[in-house]
Amino acid sequence: MTAPTLPLAREGFHAPGIEEFEWPNLVDIELFGIDLGINRVVLQMFLVAFVIWLLFFLAFRSPKLVPAGLQNVMESLVDFIRNQIVLEVIGRDGLRFVPYLTTLFTFILLGNLCGIIPPILFPLTGRMALPAILAICSLLLFISIGISQQGFIHYFRNTLFPPGMPPLIYILLTPIELISTFIVRPVTLAIRLLANMIAGHLILSVFFVASGYMLTSTNISTLFGVGALIFSVALVAFELFVAGLQAYVFTILSAVYIAGAMEPEH
Amino acid sequence: MSEPGGPKEPPGRGADVVWSVIGTLIAGVLAWGGIGWLLDRWLGTRFLVAIGVLVGAAGAFYLIIRRHGSG
Prior knowledge:
Largest sheet of chain A: 2 strands, antiparallel
Radius of gyration of chain B: 16 Å
Number of helices of chain B: 2
Strand content of chain B: under 5%
Number of strands of chain A: 4
Order of helices and strands of chain B: HH
Radius of gyration of chain A: 23 Å
Largest sheet of chain B: none
Distance between the termini of chain B: 24 Å
Helix content of chain A: 55-70%
Shape of chain A: globular
Distance between the termini of chain A: 51 Å
Number of strands of chain B: 0
Strand order of the largest sheet of chain A: 1-4
Oligomer: heterodimer
Number of helices of chain A: 8
Strand content of chain A: under 5%
Largest interface: A-B, 25 and 29 residues
Structural class of chain A: mainly alpha
Structural class of chain B: mainly alpha
């Protein structure tokens, strides 16, 4: 950004931009020319993974028949994934995917929530690496389920040549099915999550930085600063909603893709 | 996000259909637009990518109607 071209920049206001998402390496590691350096985002990922392990460990270390406290919370979480996602979308055959989907949901949810939990204030899922890897996991999972449930040839025939269509129309439909199932599905899974978290983080950063700037200025804009601050707090609540919603959407669509791979045509 | 379904409609079904429709539309335009673009490069023409996009969108609509149309 060239500072003098912006009117606000001349007065010392610096609007947060996409550079908010770039963190320098804290530890430089390079393996075969690939940068495996550890930066803040990687540390955050370790932290989230550890917190999830800790939550489940503490909750189910000595489970009680009548759950209380943390066990109650974590049981409702597992119940939610089991009843609202797996049983509704896949059915009883899908119960073996409850662990995967619960882990997926919890990890994305906590990764998203990092964006509004002080002092972290950076959404883990705002970097492409994470949504991309999670989407690839779901892609590989539903392909392997399709192959193991229907057989290699059956699965790809049912996917690329949806049954019950006039034969000639396959020339038109097969390229669409190929792109839609194996490329658009994982790409949209990843981009939907990433774009929501980037947008949310940028909006929050701009609002809080601008509120601070206006509140500390000595002219009339101090008044607007109060309004902006109130609105910023409302935006945090909205981000809380988005964090839950995006984790839910990612999980339920993974479940839908798994269900689609288990039975030929729904 | 998800459509307000009827009493028997399981939650999330709306979202499932919405994303499937959007995904199919994107895939249709990408697949046939891509084929048109490749043909354009190969044949040195410029109009096939536009035709490809239209064909892809039409194919996607057909697929969506067959799959999700009330019937």
